Predict the structure.
Amino acid sequence: DTGVSQNPRHKITKRGQNVTFRCDPISEHNRLYWYRQTLGQGPEFLTYFQNEAQLEKSRLLSDRFSAERPKGSFSTLEIQRTEQGDSAMYLCASSPGRGSYNEQFFGPGTRLTVL
Amino acid sequence: AQSVSQHNHHVILSEAASLELGCNYSYGGTVNLFWYVQYPGQHLQLLLKYFSGDPLVKGIKGFEAEFIKSKFSFNLRKPSVQWSDTAEYFCAVNPTNTGTASKLTFGTGTRLQVTL
């Protein structure tokens, strides 16, 4: 399968713990995006990388959230001191980055539950 | 900032009925427009997209959408739905004049339930 992959698929944690999610984009896609989706809502943009550079961050991304893409390939999203409001599906997407088109391919997501 | 409205939150249709799901966006400049579908237990998949040219675009599985610039709309249509079309449908917009490709702004989604 050459699609976007995300690990883990499910994560249950206690409030106050730190969690880290991983996203592996489609090979040779130089743009990578993180979104968050809560029940009954569409995905909301969190942040975006072009290669290893983080180019845009949403105001939804508080100081407890950090994302990296150290070698321009896979990316990690870390949430420190988790809160119950962080419970959501975290989606990763990638796009080729050529031209002005922005067709994004989504992974299966990581469902986070904070108890 | 751009926004997307999907007014139909939950639609129930019988098989073979025609479908139209509304999508309106708010943005003053040129945009790329998308419809994504999420089948039960599966990840988001692109159904169709509009970048430029013919405002009537055709996607997979018999779906089509029409971009009406004057109405800021990009409604999704299918002449005859099947039970397998049961899914959640999301409209999304991406401005084209930001210099670099960036985020998609999604609507809240429409849950389509097709009954036999």
Notes: Chain B touches chain A through 25 residues (CB under 8 Å). The first strand of chain B starts at residue 3 and ends at 5.
